[in-house]
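Researcher: Hi, I'm a grad student and pretty new to this. My advisor asked me to get structures for two proteins we've been looking at. I'm not sure of the right format, so I'll just paste the first sequence and hope you can take it from there.
Model: That works fine. Here's the first sequence with its structure tokens right after it:
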Amino acid sequence: MKKLSYRCENEYGPDPCEYALNNYTIPESEVTPALGGGRPKCPGKTRSGLPCNADLIPIAVGKGRWGEAILAEGRLWMVLLGGAFFLLLLAGVWYLSPLGLGQSQPSLLATPNPLLFSGKPGGKKSAQLTIRNNGEGELVIDRIEVRPAAFSVSGEKVRIKAKGAAKLPVRFDSPSIDLTEGELVLHSNDQKSPTTIKLVANRDPWWVFRKLESTSTLLQKEP
């Protein structure tokens, strides 16, 4: 059975006790029981020379250098703080794991970009977008946006395994014969999401030239 010893708890404040300041351990045999019950009081004096008379806190002393187990209430906060830190660490690992910490990540590549709809101007046309997953984790496309309304796709969710590929049919339906451009936006679990693909319908042989002419200062005509 372990013997009890005591320590003085008055080590802080404006007038601390000498036993507390020097971290003395008082054997049970040297402790005078408190009158009327309650905790025994710390002997000695405070720094200013007054009787200490602070409560003594019991501790259990075992054998060896590491045999002391602290039972005092004042040390309980250290145990609680350690447990809280451990829980915060677990929460951090859980939160960061979906972001790629220690996990294989998908990588989306959509081709061709821009996606061109061939055929005579006006009416219905279709084209296929190839979506590749060049990463190591499963690619999940959970939302697809298409604009304007002349362009459309079927299905709202696509799953592609690592190093796999899938075809996504895209449709164009408009009576207009004018050049029509749009966008297809893929929202996925790729870190670079969203991915935007240019859509072009009713193009003519000079479409590329006119695009370059409108954006390049080298091809602009002088007034």
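Researcher: Oh nice, that was easy. Here's the second one.
Model: And its structure:
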Amino acid sequence: MSDEETVVAPRAPAARLNKPGLGTRFHIDFDWWQREEREIEVYLRTYLSEAQLEQLRQENAPQTVDWVDPETAEVRSMNFMEFLFRTNAAELMAGEEKGASLVDAIFRLFLASGNLPLTPFEIAERVGRSGQERTVLRTLSGPRVYKGIRPVN
């Protein structure tokens, strides 16, 4: 075979090589919201109670607060809205009604956990849908990005 007759095997697109699997960790990609020109703060307010919204409206409400991780004792600075989600995680998760969409349940989970990256197995277990790991994976790894939930890079 001459150089002109060399056959080159087609290559798989890069996206197919990096297709998420059951071991892939997902999180809310807050940069996605900015790239899509969506207002995440406006959307996040829909998850706050009236009392929390009132706290945000106060003129002297802090922009950032120091938060101590109860497991590691690590102190980190976070914006006040994130602090409200973290300190009211149980309320946020309890606010999920039966029959809420899978995507909404996952989004609430990431908000309540401080956006801790999780696998489809961990997600399914924590949102009360054990045995539905493949459904979680199909939902989060499809062509449509829901609420900025994407694989961790």
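Researcher: Is there anything I should tell my advisor about the second?
Model: You could mention this: Strands lie at 26-28, 64-68, 75-79, 149-151.
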